[in-house]
Amino acid sequence: MKIAYQGVAGSYSESCAKYNYPKCETIPCKTFDECFEIASENNDIKTIIPESNKTTGNIGIEYLIFKFRLNIYAEHFFKISHNLLGLKGTKITDIKNVYSHAQALSQSSVFIKKNKLNEQVRADTAGSAKYVSECKDKSKAAIASSLSSEIYHLEIIHKDIQDNKDNFTRFLLLGKDIIQPENGKKLYITSFLFKLKSKPAALYSALQGMAINGVNMIKLQSFPEKNSFSSYFFLCEVEGHIDDQKIKNSLEDLNYHCEDMSVLGVFEADKLRKK
Asked: Are 75 and 114 in the same domain?
């Protein structure tokens, strides 16, 4: 399997891909857009994307889910352990500027403030480690994974500096082909997006079918349609397989209230959801 990810070698996305799919071949991409594009153009390439974080919330890739409408094959809750990386021999008192992705900086805000470091936002965590390695300046450090320290020959100055020690990011594996698991004795999630017809109480009416059929909704997020602040799409996830009668009935009822509706995928829930 080939999996595209955003960033350079050593990123959390690549680590998640290799952890869950040990035999996969990873393909680095500069942007999330590029990840979606390459997966939409090639049947044999999937992409793994961070969707949300337990500490800081949504990553902000919903517009790409709407734009490309790739099929979701799996979700993976991957533990994120941030480390402060610097040149060998660097002390915390030497550091003035710390570089990383905005999410990593936000997730490590307590440590950063405590040590009076200046935040410098960059495109990704592993890229920040690479930058610090190339600069050869002890006043600069990066927040990244332990794998990045190995790849870019940096020293781990402080381990696990994230605010929340139970810090997980939810990753999604997506691709062009429509593949759905058979309905078995497992916990499944059905993901879909929809745009409602413009009428009063549209959302209330549209979701009544979920309540009537006893469907547990676990995600509902709105985002504006391109070039509009008056028209919104909704990204929704419910517990259950699309072949379950209660899911079928709910989606049929919802579709009656929609201008546009698209099922994004059916996949097994990550084991952490069951705890």
From this structure: no
